[in-house]
Amino acid sequence: MKAKELRNLSTEELLAKLDEFKSELFSLRFQLATGQLQNTAIIKTVKRDIAKVKTVLAERKLNEARA
């Protein structure tokens, strides 16, 4: 997911996405540990998505503090 798309979402939607990505990461790590994960690059993509969501949330928090 692109940061531009994330900026169009509301804060509540971003928090929901963050929870979704975190549960997906947990599932992927569990699959990796049990040897069921075929494509390990997915983990890196999900980690980056989590970072993007956190970045957008931090930007919003800074903008609220300035206003």
Please indicate the percent range of residues in DSSP E strands (runs of 2 or more): under 5%
Shape: elongated
- The figure for the number of domains is 1
Secondary structure tally, helices: 3
Keywords: Ribonucleoprotein, Ribosomal protein
GO molecular function: structural constituent of ribosome
Protein name: Large ribosomal subunit protein uL29
GO biological process, one term: translation
Defining key terms:
82% helix, Helix Hairpins, mainly alpha
Describe it for me?
One of its GO terms (biological process) is translation. Belongs to the universal ribosomal protein uL29 family. One of its GO terms (molecular function) is structural constituent of ribosome. Keywords: Ribonucleoprotein, Ribosomal protein. This protein is mainly α and 67 residues long. It is built from 3 helices and no strands. It has helices spanning 3-7, 11-34, 41-66. The chain is elongated, with a radius of gyration of 14 Å. The mean pLDDT is 95.
